[in-house]
Fold these 4 entries.
Entry 1:
Amino acid sequence: MRVNLTVNGSPRTADDVWPGESLLFVLRERLGLPGSKNACEQGECGSCTVRLDGDLVCACLVAAGQAEGREVVTVEGLAAEGEDGAPRLTALQRAFLDAGAVQCGFCTPGLLMAADDLLTRTPDPADADIREALSGNLCRCTGYEKIIDAVRLASARTAAGAPAGSAEGE
Ligand code: FES
Ligand code: FES
């Protein structure tokens, strides 16, 4: 079957999609967007988190057909493209780098999506809000303190004038 959807603001089409195929598979294997990770494929780890019509979902649990005609935002869609074609990191992405919160490539994309969603809804979150927002995103390796520091940093910088979720120049 053919699936038409909007991904990171652009219309995309995937052909030959099997009925049981996941949105995650379509994004990674058919549309060339490997940022969303396939770690558990059971809705347990959050590595595949994307926005579907504005709501966070585990793309591994969404059938591709359910995305027909809908809007998907992946981690690749967080950074804006600068005039030179290079990505311009969001305040949150910059904060992850500066706080040393970038860990392995599996958990970080989902953590960024969840944190971005939190800061969009709650620009000045309490620590409990941050922990709750990230509770569906598992890291198997380490603590979460630097990640929480990064969300705090992004929130503080945004309050100081850097717009959350928008491009921040190098
Ligand atoms: S790969 Fe989807 S939740 Fe783990
Ligand atoms: S799962 Fe990513 S650093 Fe542990």
Entry 2:
Amino acid sequence: MEHAGESHSREHTFDKDYWERHWQERGTDPAATPGAAPNPHVVRETAGLVPGTALDAGCGTGTEALWLAARGWRVVGADISAAALAEASAQTAARSLAGSVSWVEADLVSWAPEQQFDLVVASYAHPAIPQLAFYRHISEWVAPGGTLLIVGHLHAHSASHRHGDAGQRPPIEATAGPEGITAQLDSAQWKIITAEEQSSTPPGHRGGNAPVLNDVVVRAVRQS
Ligand SMILES: C[S@@+](CC[C@H](N)C(=O)[O-])C[C@H]1O[C@@H](n2cnc3c(N)ncnc32)[C@H](O)[C@@H]1O
């Protein structure tokens, strides 16, 4: 049985070509201004953390990575899209944050970082592999005592969510609920701090016609 939104997901594979096109087209979308406010879930969930090293996995144009860097984190922003990282790099220079953030163009499915991180963030990152496998993969990059923070799309209730193209819901395979995500994390090794569904309005939108983002937020601390 086909659910609404699935036809969108079958039109592409979330490979590098898809994401390069996505970021090149977003350049003409005034709602996608680089330097926009950071994701409110990232702001809230990292507020009490002591800054250290951080990886923003699938950082896009770097909004969250730059926000973390401005708050004392030493950040690596990694993304498969050269177009997104070119914008991130320009923003870095404009904000004089070059000493705190570096950008890596990489396919995170095959990339292996040289170090583990005190914080690994994935905010709406969805690659060509199954979403839960991606979360499990990046969880291995969290250092003992460090934090994994996942902000993802929820498909089920996202009737008005924009995802690149006007009016389309996030593709179903790019979504995962809190239970599915936390099930990827070995309970002997991880302490779950946050696992919930949240809604928010994107920055810059107000009033009755504002789109509603329905998200999943999971924060977990690696014990060992
Ligand atoms: C919806 S955007 C989210 C960007 C940003 N984190 C945000 O919250 O606005 C998803 C990002 O994941 C990146 N991405 C997708 N697959 C990837 C992969 N295999 N390796 C690295 N980045 C990937 C895309 O290029 C894109 O920038």
Entry 3:
Amino acid sequence: MESIQAIKQRFGIIGNDPKLNRSIEKAIQVSPTDISVLVTGESGVGKESIPKIIHQLSHRKHGKYIAVNCGAIPEGTIDSELFGHEKGAFTGATSTRSGYFEVANEGTIFLDEVGELPLTTQVRLLRVLENGEFIKVGSSKVQKTNVRIVAATNVNMFEAIKKEKFREDLYYRLSTVEINLPPLRDRKEDIHLLFRKFASDFALKYKMPTVKLTDEAVVLLLKYRWNGNIRQLRNVAEQVSVLEQNRTINANTLQNYLPNTGSNLPAVVNNSKSEGDFSSEREILYKVLFDMKSDLNDLKKLTMELMKKDSDTDIQKDNAHLIQKIYGDEKDEAFEAAVEDLEVLSIPEHTKETSEETLSHLTDKYDFAEEIEEEETLSLHDKELELIKKSLERHGGKRKLAAAELGISERTLYRKIKQFDL
Ligand SMILES: Nc1ncnc2c1ncn2[C@@H]1O[C@H](COP(=O)(O)OP(=O)(O)OP(=O)(O)O)[C@@H](O)[C@H]1O
Ligand SMILES: [Mg+2]
């Protein structure tokens, strides 16, 4: 008997997974018999190679092998396709035609997607399975055939039976032996092996160097769900081989070819990302406000010094209301209102702690800046008052002389006297 490795090579089956090997072994074992086989497994797992192995290793190998996709044939013509029809059986039936069961006599029929068969066709099929008998559409003559039937399905047959879409007796007839092919995600060892094989096939086909995966990309390849199994893996290998200029494929690049990679990540990653964005956005806002406030303080100090140095009193006089507005009320209402606004922003419960911390940290900083400013203003105020007092004393209360000594106009001095209540 041919070894399992030789069979795999002959039928182009890649992989060393024990479950895959077991399935192939089963196919080899049942091949010399006429037992009906039902091949099960998800879409794209490679079910189609099993009936080929069974046929080729059986005494029927010189007979016909016909694969029928039961899901692809319209309901109205499937009986005629499978069992044939008599001339005039229906409109367009211009001549008698043999069906697959007649043609495949002494051979094998592979009924792919058998779960899709209409119930009426299921009755006809059951009869063939039980005694090899069938009747052409539009005929009353019973014919005999000797056909080996291998069926395949990617749907849950028990559910189909429960929903009365599939006959239970037919199911047991078809599945005397069931060969199940494991999904790709349960064949981790084979995933990279298959990718390398497909990549080298496509490199040859498209005359390009073979793509190679980085270690991280291999990890991603193994972690992926592969709902489309080997068919999907081959498509990904083809797309990457054709579309990527750089022949070394990293995880980021590979991710672009794997749909729903995001949904494979824990949901918490997404949540914490948005929370992080939210609190960092608030921090940026606070920082901008704080920076603006400290810039404003610097500007005030600078203007104050310039005003003091400048003896041109007209500037002060002409801008008196502005000076009053800027220096008169040291509380920055706009800033405080903005901070308040930020505080009342609806903060999700889980971020509240962080934002309150940030807020108190920033307002501490802000208060601190205010203190420094107040201290300095206070000392300036004191010094100014002291200077004016001394100058007035020196000149016997004569404002004109005092103003000249202080380098300010008489009017400014007058205003200062009133302001300081001298
Ligand atoms: N072990 C394997 N090694 C190499 N190629 C494979 C292997 N298994 C499957 N393939 C390839 O993957 C593709 C899908 O396989 P196949 O058509 O047999 O899937 P299926 O199980 O019949 O899926 P569906 O239920 O959708 O019909 C085919 O091109 C097949 O050649
Ligand atoms: Mg198939």
Entry 4:
Amino acid sequence: MSGNYYDAHSHTLGIVTSAAESIQKQFALSRSYNLLNVTFNSISDGMIVIDSDSNIKRINGRALDVLNLTLDDVMNLDIKSLITNIDFKALLKGDKKEIYNIESDFKIKNDKIKCIVNAVPMNVNNKNIGMVITFKETKHIHKLVSKLAGFKASYTFDDIITENKNMKNMILLAKKSAKSDCNVLIEGESGTGKELLAQSIHNYSDRRNKPFVAVNCASIPRELVESELFGYEKGAFTGAAKEGHAGKFELADGGTIFLDEIGELPLDMQSKLLRVLDNGKIIRVGGTFEKQLDVRVIGATNRILKKEVNRKNFRNDLYYRLSVMNIKTIPLRQRKEDIGLLVNYFTKNLSIKKGTEVKKINKDYVEKLKDNYWEGNVRELRNVVERDFYLSEKNILVSYEVENTCKKEEKTFENVVAIKTLEKEAIEKAIIQSNGNMVQAANLLQIGRSTLYRKVKKYNIAYKI
Ligand SMILES: Nc1ncnc2c1ncn2[C@@H]1O[C@H](COP(=O)(O)OP(=O)(O)OP(=O)(O)O)[C@@H](O)[C@H]1O
Ligand SMILES: [Mg+2]
């Protein structure tokens, strides 16, 4: 304010002072408003503010991104038209306090966007003035779950100990498969490193930073296989969690799913799996919406799957779809040069683990081990070495009744009578160990059930029904 000082009214200074004060306040207000705005838009969750009539009054950039909408699309829209499974009326009336982590679908045009939603009513002087809704896309939660739940592959090709030429070729093939992104089928006896290989393939592929989800198809009860693999919607069956549940395929999105013992998959599930492999889409149990996923499948089995196809236990089309890359692991008895190497490796690891001096290994010790049949392959060898490591008191590895725990080498099988005897013994043992459960016994013997019954009859073996 300017002018002649003598002509000014005495109140002028007061006017100037209060004008300055209000300018200052206005500045502060706009600065904090800007700060609020910037904060609102930098939050990594979607955020929507509604008024007490449930109309959208504010929405942040993240929410617009996730829902693929513009500000004009949503301003003043009733939130109830977007989300139907949350009772906003009850929340606004104060009948319900707040809700956390509800899985909801945002219905946008013809799309459904799955999100985990929190809603907290805003009250001023006991009067509801609206609500803050925050949400995250479910697929991000899945990524987080994978990270936290340890859906990670720890082994790499460097962990595969071998000097064998065929093994090295197998690793070469596995590396090529890893880069190809095709489905892989790994066949081989128990303990030959199928899981080790599957993890190594994942870690060698471009999916290495994404989840590796392992599922043992044999250990899931038959009636739960589908929901375990593909998830379920709320209320899909009695006992289902209220909010529904993501399946292993969804959790593996972007990464690899390892279907261990895939030969045990029931036939009806095999056809569902085939469909998923064909189009990459899953439908949750009790759901209607298809979801596009990007998952690479690695299957493993200790059966010879082609034989199971001939026996009609495994679908032919699924077999071919899966075994685009077919890798066969090699039994330990066919690569004896690896035994010494593995004994050294396991002993060293045990010494490090126990913090003791590395135990020495006699040549005799290794030679003796080479005579065994190694039905349980590397896993069995590791167990034997571990036991001997703890039982040897001196600083040298001493064998402890190895002969009693393992079958003799193949050469004893030359005699026809011996094979028969061994077969009969094996069947008897399997039936006793399975308590007469013939399905389990057949699994243990790695033969079909009908073959088992035929042999039981042939050898006149007694069994419970
Ligand atoms: N070549 C190898 N070098 C080092 N360790 C190995 C090797 N092969 C197997 N192992 C080890 O042997 C154990 C069994 O391997 P893995 O679980 O991968 O076998 P598998 O073929 O999946 O067996 P199963 O059919 O019984 O599930 C693991 O502890 C693994 O680390
Ligand atoms: Mg395994």
